[in-house]
Amino acid sequence: MNSIVSIEKVVKVYRVGSEDFTALHEISLEIEAGAFMSFVGPSGSGKTTLLNLIGGLDQPTSGSIFFKNVKLGELNRTALAEYRRKNLGFVFQTYNLLPVYSVYENILFPLLLDGNKESAVRQLVMDMVASVGLSDQIKKRPSQLSGGQCQRVAIARALVKKPALILADEPTANLDAENSYQILELMRELNKQFKAAFVFSTHDEKVTKYVTREVGLEDGRVCWDKRRNGFGSLE
User: Fold this and answer.
1) Which of 34, 52, 72, 89 is most buried, judged by most C-beta within 10 A?
2) How confident is the model at residue 228 (pLDDT cuts 50, 70, 90)?
3) Under CATH, domain 34-62+76-227 is a member of which superfamily?
4) Contact partners, residue 214, CB within 8 Å, separation at least 6
5) So what's the pLDDT on residue 24?
6) What's the whole-number mean pLDDT along residues 137-146?
């Protein structure tokens, strides 16, 4: 198995008032390079917590997470920031776009943070805008776009650095059914085109029709791990 992420007996405990709350109970999983998969479950099941741990946004209480054989728990804050910048793209349900920037500028921004000159990456950004079908909206700001269009910008921004892994937290939660299907279809096509692994955190049943693997979580435990067997069917 060509794993990009290895999760080994991960436990996450939060202090809530005077009591401890265990959000994850000894989770062990492998995520393959190029995966298109989801963590599913009700609110409080631990799916977003697990996504945040993979993203280096939080640390497990015990257990280990490896990205390409690098143990995240051994990285300091600066190294974790570099890990996220070089290897990950994030897609959030609230888009998290910069409101004063245009479509082009929002997608350009992470490349500028990496020290690139605009002239050197302008065509890359233009190509990414085209890949998500927004060439005719390129000068507009987020307030001038629909929710579906904003999510397309967020996806393009996540992919523009060609990361190995995209983490998408409830990416269809704020979209109607038609836009949800369009976004999922787009993500699936971009997964094939760019070979980045996509990992969703979701409770949206529509996602099941697109992912090739579904990991069910409940009360911080893995309840099932199903592989796809034909469109819309998991085994």
Assistant:
1) 89
2) confident
3) P-loop containing nucleotide triphosphate hydrolases (3.40.50.300)
4) 37, 38, 40, 208, 224, 225, 226, 228, 234
5) 96
6) 96
